[in-house]
Amino acid sequence: MPDRLRRIGDSLREDVVSGFLLIAGAVVALVWVNSPWSHSYEAIRVFAFGPESLHLHLSLEQWAADGLLAIFFFVVGNELKQEFVHGELRNPRRAMLPIVAALCGMVVPAAIYAAINFGQGDALRGWGIPMATDIAFAVAILAVVGRFLPPALRTFLLTLAIVDDLGAIVVIAVFYTDHLSFPPLLAAVALLAVFGYLQRGRGAAAALNRSQLPNWVIYVPLAFAIWALMHASGIHATIAGVAMGMLMRTTEGPGEHHSPSHGTEHIVRPWSNSLVLPIFALMSAGVAFPGLGTIFTDSAAVGIIAGLVGGKLLGIFGGAWVTTKITSAELNPSLSWIDICGMALLAGIGFTVSLLITELSFADHPHVLEDAKAGVLLASFLATVLAACVLGVRSAHYRRRAADAPSRTGSAGH
User: Fold this and answer.
1) 3-state secondary structure of 87
2) Per-residue pLDDT tens for 106-137?
3) What GO CC annotations are associated with the protein (predicted)?
């Protein structure tokens, strides 16, 4: 039995498995919400529970998007920390490229949307909708269609998507949040400092870590408190997951067989892949699709589609290419620019954060809201199909090249 459980755990750590589970959840949600039984889906999604005194009386959809997804963001932040310390992103010239590309991939879609909706009154409020990339869906699609792509492309996407999400959270906080509460935000930052101190593994932190208490007794309540305070502040609570992931220690201390970063990821990743992402997809992907008739006559929907599909491609690919020409930034030698083109198309999957900004932008305009949501859905679908075509071809190319490598090596030996 232990061997079987270990094999199951290993399979659930694979991005391909989590990708199929997430896509399955999204398909079920889309079919369900567009079926005659859509009322049951909505009833489940809006079912709320949790303590109101802690600002945590949330619907199932909110628990999935704000709560469970923070676990996924923790895993991603932890993985990026490993890359910055030990991996691809140690090189500042390579780390600069996805960061600049992410910023350009936010500005250009917003500018395209604003240009299309200039003079359209309240429709202009949605300029932030096409700025966001849904990292969960993007990583899942990349895993499914790009199994033989260089690992550096996944690192590029993770870095870009994290910067993109942080930027989107700032935009929401500044332009789409009526009230930002600073006391819980400062308290969350203070507890993050405590979390970082405990990760140092020296002095009092080392003594605490060597105590008879299991680590989870200390870290789980601390992590929940950080998340709850971040949520109460009005900032999207997934930022707490990213912050804690980036604070994880990636080096081994005295008497440790592995670093806290690797040990925690080994435990958390299977739960993130098999439980967090499918539930998130099931609760978030249920968008009623009204049809194509009104989408292409609504300037907000057109701006969203143009921004997510065309703007992301132009901003990310163009920004990265120009950056390599005018700065010392460089593209990883294992990648080509057509790979970045496919990844830029993949970044056009807006979904969760885009839908959130859509709700904030058009809450008082239900007809625009419906078309805008459909625009996000259609744009994400188009971005997925286009990216899958490009990255699928590139993955096949790398697979053939890997298969040919042994024969070339053998010929060279003779």
Assistant:
1) coil
2) 999 999 999 999 988 888 999 999 998 888 88
3) plasma membrane
* Positive or negative torsion for Cα 57, 360, 180, 107: positive
Structure tokens given for 121: 């009154």
CATH number at residue 306: 1.20.1530.10
* Residue indicated by tokens 């529970």: 49
* Structural domain span for residue 371: 2-44+53-177+235-400
Say how far apart CA 376 and CA 369 lie, in whole Å. Answer: 11
Query: To 10 degrees, the CA torsion angle through 165, 169, 174, 177?
Result: 140
CA dist 356 and 265 (Å) reads 28
Q: Indicate the pTM of the whole model.
A: 0.81
Amino acid of residue 329: A
> Which H or E run includes 339?
helix 337-346
Report the number of distinct structural domains present in the chain: 1
Q: Is 191 a member of any domain?
A: no
Amino acid at 219: Y
Structure tokens at 93: 């010239």
> And the tokens for 322?
């120009």
